[in-house]
Amino acid sequence: MQQEVLKAEKLNKYFHEPATSHVLHDISLSIQKGEFVSIMGKSGCGKSTLLYLLSTLDTDYDGTININGIKVTGLHENEMARFRNEHIGFVFQFHFLLPEFTALENVMLPALKLGKLNQTEIEQQAMKKLKQMDMHEHAHKLSGKLSGGQQQRVAIARALINNPMIIMADEPTGNLDSANTAVIFNIFNQLVQAGNTIITVTHDHDFARKSNRILEMADGRIKI
């Protein structure tokens, strides 16, 4: 029996500057454990806005979101931050690594913030995640000295450090060439095979076609 890990009901989102606009309209969806879901649509259709709601980074909306059976809508800020750090991993188009930190130090940061393990245990976990990305040999290099594809692999390792139930990715291959895009897709595919759930926004049709399911958006709605 499939396990539902994310459920959104009747999500509506408004922007109020410079004038009020209704950008997401009554969006309801369900994501199962182990799914690899791609959200697609033209620029401005609301796909990144939807991802930010689902990932709890944006909490200003109408409707409800449940993650792993927990209603995250309405959680206090500190509770939300801890839940997000523990249960959701993030991969963005821009890796957002700290260039003055090594690859290993960057990967360790979310686990240090969570505080469930001591520093030695966190370092061991971070090395495991880097090895999973085939980046362990670069662990002690400054992240600013790595190539774009290498930096994105380090960013994925960082997203995995707390063993999240869901990985949210916003245009994760948007700055990569075709070879590195293939590497990132293969990594995502392996993660799904291992039971992870991935929700990604992408413009890349080839990338999306290889995922389990595509949600096509237009004008703030999911097309049926």
Give a short summary of the structure:
The protein is of the alpha/beta class and 224 residues long.
3D architecture notes:
The protein is α/β, with parallel strands linked by helices and 224 residues long. The protein has one domain (36-61, 74-222): 3-Layer(aba) Sandwich (Rossmann fold). Helix content is 35%, strand content 27%. The chain has seven helices and ten strands. The chain has helices at 47-54, 77-87, 103-114, 119-132, 148-160, 178-193, 205-209, and strands at 4-15, 21-32, 36-40, 62-67, 70-71, 88-92, 166-170, 197-201, 213-218, 221-222. The strands form two sheets. The protein has a six-stranded mixed beta sheet. Strands 2-1-4-5 form a four-stranded antiparallel beta sheet, with helices on one face. A hairpin with a 5-residue loop joins strand 1 and strand 2. Helix 4 (119-132) crosses helix 5 (148-160). It is globular, with a radius of gyration of 17 Å. The chain starts with a strand and ends with a strand.
Strand and helix layout:
Blueprint (H helix, E strand, L loop, with lengths): L3 E12 L5 E12 L3 E5 L6 H8 L7 E6 L2 E2 L5 H11 E5 L10 H12 L4 H14 L15 H13 L5 E5 L7 H16 L3 E5 L3 H5 L3 E6 L2 E2 L2
Parallel strand pairs: 3-8, 3-9, 6-7, 7-8
Antiparallel strand pairs: 1-2, 1-4, 4-5, 9-10
Helix pairs in contact: 3-4, 3-5, 4-5
Q: How many strands, which pairing sense, and closed or not: the largest β-sheet?
A: 6 strands, mixed
Rounded radius of gyration (Å): 17 Å
Quickly count the domains.
1
Any idea what the CATH architecture is? 3-Layer(aba) Sandwich
Q: Give helix % range.
A: 25-40%
- Beta content: 25-35%
Record the strand order, biggest sheet.
6-7-8-3-9-10
**Looking at the structure, what is the overall shape?**
globular
Stated plainly, the CATH topology is called Rossmann fold
